[in-house]
Task: structure prediction
Amino acid sequence: MTTKEFEQLANQAQIYQQQMQNVVTQKAALTMERNELKKATEEIENSKEESVYKIAGPILVKADAAKVKKDLEERLEFIDLKVKSIEKQEGMIRERLEDLRTKLMASEKGKGR
Result:
């Protein structure tokens, strides 16, 4: 492997590492939002109130508890799908990154670096 090819692989690996970091950050943010939504849904389920307050921009609005719960559950479904998609993307990036690392290590061993 030439020095130029080695540098190209190293640059590709760096790009994949940045992509992996972005994916992990997105996944963490979605996981945190999912946990908050689950907690809010549980609170509505445990409450005997027929109406609750929800945030609408900078204000609180009184809303039907069943409707708010349904909205939260729909948002949870959306987030779950998004997390699954991100996990697939994470797996693909991880595979590519490992493949590049293997090639880079093999190249270094071959050249005695």
Remarks:
- The radius of gyration is 23 Å.
